[in-house]
């Protein structure tokens, strides 16, 4: 049977990891992999999460299934973290999912059941896994303009023009904050205009919020989503804990539905759980249980927020320092946008040939669209890195 298959194309980021690991140069720099790193290049277990895991270890007395929806306490805590007081929570239903990617696919399955072959609009560019995940769920994909590479800003008017082409019943996938891969976010005024367009044209918002707390703060990062939630009759949300709780390998996510009313919310969650049963049956428990303990305990929640804020502030400092280094080395303002962007990523606007030269000549690794992980920047070698980048321009 398998002789009919060709080798699947390798994942570009995973392939980059292998190249980086094989590189023996002492000065190598990894700006590709999308995980938070501290000054020493480590991705630590957060203090509050470690304490929650210790408590879980000492109190958990069974490993039996929790059910298709997972940890209901986790689900309630996550819906509050995301929606705040923006909606009537009786209209919200949540299913714990295997990471943010699992939440995306689970919602995609629900949307396919609701409207088979529906069109989902994604930003150009968007996170590379968005398109295959949505197509895998049976949805048709269209793109709307988003990023102006020349200025490093959101091309908002072009975005509105493209979204005006969407038909009633189409789905619009929006990044809740810290746009991946560009780092360029909508302003609050722009979120308000997008919310109005979605409501006016009968489009379903699908918000992927994978970096809440990494941009302008935990509450500020959810403000755009909450503006939309208060404006539209229904929406769906995929949330991830990988970044803001640093539980990457534990696969902790939440798939959320905001329905028009309680009855429709109940119907929607019944279909989402039926889809979960067919996809993976039960979600993993450990990471979600740790997150639930953190969010439900005042002291742990406070410590988590403090450490998350330290991570956010470090990335902001790195952005400013890197933009300053690039300005010094290039004697231009070409890269000043890096300081204005938010989250873990920015695009430098380099060509593939320039990226290859950086890797071959300077041991600097980044993905092919020139997206860099800001948290991976070497704090003590920013001028050296900036000099290397300028040398290939």
Helix content: 40-55%
Average pLDDT metric: 96
**Count of all domains:** 2
Rg value: 21 Å
Distance between the termini: 49 Å
Describe this structure as you would to a colleague:
The protein has 393 residues and is of the alpha/beta class. It is built from 14 helices and 13 strands. It has a seven-stranded mixed sheet, sandwiched between helices. Strands 1-12 form a two-stranded parallel sheet. A hairpin with a 4-residue loop joins strand 5 (147-148) and strand 6. Helix 4 packs across helix 5 (130-136).
Notable features of this structure?
393 residues; alpha/beta; Aspartate Aminotransferase, domain 1; Aspartate Aminotransferase, domain 2; 2 domains; seven-stranded mixed β-sheet; two-stranded parallel ribbon; 13 strands; globular
Topology:
Elements: H1 12-22, E1 29-30, H2 47-59, H3 72-83, E2 92-98, H4 99-114, E3 119-124, H5 130-136, E4 140-145, E5 147-148, E6 153-154, H6 156-163, E7 171-175, H7 188-201, E8 204-209, H8 223-231, E9 235-240, E10 252-258, H9 262-279, H10 286-296, H11 298-330, H12 337-340, E11 345-347, H13 352-362, E12 364-365, E13 371-373, H14 382-391
Parallel strand pairs: 1-12, 3-4, 3-7, 7-8, 8-9
Antiparallel strand pairs: 2-10, 5-6, 9-10, 11-13
């Amino acid at each position: 049977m398998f002789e009919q298959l060709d080798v699947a194309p390798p994942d570009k980021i995973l392939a980059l990891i292998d190249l980086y690991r094989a590189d023996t140069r002492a000065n190598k720099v990894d700006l590709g992999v999308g995980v938070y790193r501290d000054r020493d290049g480590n991705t630590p277990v957060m203090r509050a999460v470690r304490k929650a895991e210790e408590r879980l270890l000492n109190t958990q007395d069974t490993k039996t299934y929790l059910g298709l929806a997972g940890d209901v306490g986790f689900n309630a805590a996550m819906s509050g973290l995301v929606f705040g007081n923006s909606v009537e929570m009786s209209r919200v239903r949540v299913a714990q999912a295997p990471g943010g990617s699992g939440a995306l696919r689970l919602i995609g399955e629900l949307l396919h059941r609701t409207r088979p072959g529906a069109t989902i609009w994604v930003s150009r560019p968007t996170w590379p896994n968005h398109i295959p995940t949505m197509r895998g769920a049976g949805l048709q994909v269209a793109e709307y303009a988003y990023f102006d590479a020349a200025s490093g800003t959101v091309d908002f008017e072009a975005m509105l023009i493209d979204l005006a082409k969407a038909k009633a019943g189409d789905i619009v996938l929006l990044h809740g904050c810290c746009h991946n891969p560009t780092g360029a976010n909508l302003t609050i005024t722009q979120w308000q205009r997008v919310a109005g367009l979605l409501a006016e044209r009968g489009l379903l918002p699908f918000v992927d919020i994978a970096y809440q707390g990494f941009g302008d703060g935990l509450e500020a990062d959810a403000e755009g989503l909450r503006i939309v939630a208060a404006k539209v009759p229904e929406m769906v949300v995929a949330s991830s804990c990988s970044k803001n709780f640093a539980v990457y390998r534990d696969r902790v996510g939440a798939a959320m539905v905001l329905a028009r009313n309680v009855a429709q919310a109940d119907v929607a969650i019944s279909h989402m759980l039926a889809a979960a049963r067919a996809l993976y049956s039960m979600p993993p428990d450990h990471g979600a249980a740790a997150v639930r303990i953190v969010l439900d305990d005042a002291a742990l929640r406070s410590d988590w927020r403090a450490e998350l804020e330290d991570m956010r502030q470090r990335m902001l400092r790195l952005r400013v320092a890197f933009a300053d280094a690039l300005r010094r080395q290039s004697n231009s303002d070409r890269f000043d946008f890096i300081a204005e962007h938010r989250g873990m990523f920015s695009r430098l606007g380099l060509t593939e040939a320039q990226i290859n030269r950086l890797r071959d000549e300077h041991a600097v690794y980044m993905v092919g669209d020139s997206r860099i992980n800001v948290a991976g920047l070497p704090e003590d070698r920013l001028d050296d890195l900036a000099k290397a980048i300028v040398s290939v321009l």
